Amino acid sequence: MAETQKTTATKAPAKKAAARKSAPRKTAARPAARKQSAMDVARAAARQLSELTGREPECVTGVQRTEDGWEVEIEVVESRRIPDSTDILATYRVQVDADGDLTGYHRARRYVRGKGGDGDGGGGR
């Protein structure tokens, strides 16, 4: 039994050494990953908005490159109702820097799902 413990003790440092060897590869690959696709930026923005607001994104409705990075429009359910067609939705505009980090966001509009559209949310009957 003493031999088994001795073998286990020598294997553990070998794993740590292997982990240390692979770490520089990740650091070296980082600069190449700086230029992100619109899809990558949109996914990261949706994830970060969800973490900040506690609400799950429904979908990304727009992505646009800006001088400072990106602007992403994300649709979020603010209040679930029955039936679903009466859910309260909101569109958030999220600013993301060139590295993909959220730098700001605000709610651009709020509306009832069944009365959406490009206007103000269908304020009339």
Short key terms for the protein model shown above:
125 residues, alpha+beta, Nuclear Transport Factor 2, Chain: A, four-stranded antiparallel sheet, 2 helices, 4 strands, 35% helix, 33% strand, elongated, disordered N terminus, disordered C terminus, Gas vesicle synthesis protein GvpO
Question: Mind explaining what this structure looks like?
Answer:
The structure is a single chain. The chain is built from 2 helices and 4 strands, in the order ααββββ. With 125 residues, it is of the alpha+beta class. The chain has a domain at 34-115: Nuclear Transport Factor 2, Chain: A (Roll). Strands 1-2-3-4 form a 4-stranded antiparallel β-sheet, with helices on one face. The longest helix is centred in the N-terminal third of the chain and has 28 residues, at 2-29. It is elongated, with a radius of gyration of 23 Å. Residues 13-28 have a biased composition (Basic residues). One of its GO terms (biological process) is gas vesicle organization. InterPro entries: Gas-vesicle_GvpO. It comes from Nocardioides ginsengisegetis.
